[in-house]
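Preliminary data (for renewal application), uridine-diphosphate-N-acetylglucosamine complex.
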Amino acid sequence: MSKFIIRGKNSLRGTVNVAGSKNAALPVIFAALTLFGSSQIIGLPDIGDVDIALRLIEEQGASITRQGSVTYINTDRASYKKPSPELVSRLRASTYLIGACLSRFGRVDVGGYGGCAFCPRPIDYHLALCGAMGALANGDSLTAARLRPTVYKFPKPSVGATVNFLILAASTDGESRLLNPAREPHIDTLVEFLRSAGAYIERDGEGITVRGGTLHGAEVTVRGDAIEAGTMLAASLITGGGIRVMGADPAELSPFLAILRRAGATVDTELGITVRAEGLSPMLVIADAYPAFPTDLGPITAPLLAAFSGGHVIDRVWLGRYGYLSELAKLGVSYVLGEKGAKILPSRLTAGSAAATDLRGGAACILAALGAEGYSEIHSAETVLRGYADLCKKLTALGADVEYSEI
Ligand code: UD1
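Predicted structure:
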C-alpha cells in the first residue's frame, strides 16, 4: 500500500513530456507474442500495467530485454502455460491473452481478468468472435486447431474486442472483416505493428479488413499518451498555472480541448499543447466511443468542473463509472448523481484524505488535492502508478508539492 501526500495550491509551470500511451502499449505487447522471431517496441511507458503485461508474455516463454527506451521481445521459445491468476487479476488488458494465445498456441484459459473495476466489464464479444473464428469452448478454456477467417460485427464498438480481432485475424490465413470496430487512436499503434509484421490491414468507414498469415518480428514506436496529456493540462488549470505538454497528438485530445475552448479557455497547439483560463463556464462532458470525448478523461474533468463553474459528466461507455465521485467528495467536490450521469456543482476544494478507487479516479483525486489549500493524502497510490509514468517526478518538476510514500 502507498499514498501520495500533496500540499495543494502551487501553480504548475513549465514543460512536461508525456510517456508512451498505456492503452497503445498494452495491445502491442500481447501482439508481439504472436510474431515469430524478434520484435522491438520503442517507448513503452514505465508503468505498473506494462510490467504485468511483460510478465504475462514472459510466462508464455517470450524473452524480454529492455535497453533504454527499446524493449526487445523474442518468441522463439514460446510455449503455452496457463496464465497465472494472480497476474491476470491485476490487469484488464490480460484479456488480450485470448487473441494472442489462441493465435500462437491454439489454446487459452479464459477468465479472472482484473484491473479497474469501475463497472462490470463483460467479455462476451471477445468470446463470440473466437467462436466465429472456429474456437471451441470447454469450461474456461478455448481451443482452436486452426482458426478460420470471419466477417463479424460487434453490437457496439469495443476497444478490447477490436484489439483481439486484429491479433487473431492478423495470424489467420485468409481475409477477415470486422464491422462496427472501435476507432480509438491508440489502436493505430497496433495496426502499424501488425502491418510491419506482414499483415494486410485496411480501414474504411464501416470496418476493418485484415488479410493474415504467419507473421514475423516487427518494430513500432508507441504514440504519446493523450490521457496523460489531458491529466497534466487539467492539473495546470486547476492550480491556475500554465504548462506546455509535449509528445501527445493534439488531434487525439480534440474533444477535450474543444470543451475547454467552449468554456472559455485559450488553447494553443502550435508547439505542444498549452491551455490557459481565468475562469471556465459550466461544461457538459459526454463520454462515448471515439471520436467522442474519451471515457478515461471523464473522471479527470470532474474536479475541474468543481473548481470552476460546475457542469455534467455523463459516461455512455461505462454507465456506472462514477464510483470515484464519493472519494472526490472527501476533497470538497459536491455532486448529484442522477440516472443519466453526474451533475458536478461549483465547489470549494478542501484538503482531506481520499483513495484511488481505480486508475483515473485516483488521478482525479490528485487533481482535486492539487487545487485544495493544505495537505491531502491520496491512498492506493499504486493504483495510479499502474498508468502514469514518473508522476511524482513530473508534477514536482512543474512546481507541485507531491510526495510518494509506502505505508
Ligand atoms: C474502454 C474504452 C477505452 C478505455 C478503457 C479504460 C471505449 C470504446 N473504450 O475500453 O477507450 O481506455 O475502457 O477506461 O471508450 N462490451 C460488451 N461486451 C464485451 C466488450 C465490451 O458489452 O465483450 C461493452 C462494454 O460493457 C462497454 C463497451 O462495450 O460498454 C466498450 O467496452 P470496451 O471498449 O471493450 O472496453 P475497454 O476495451 O476496456
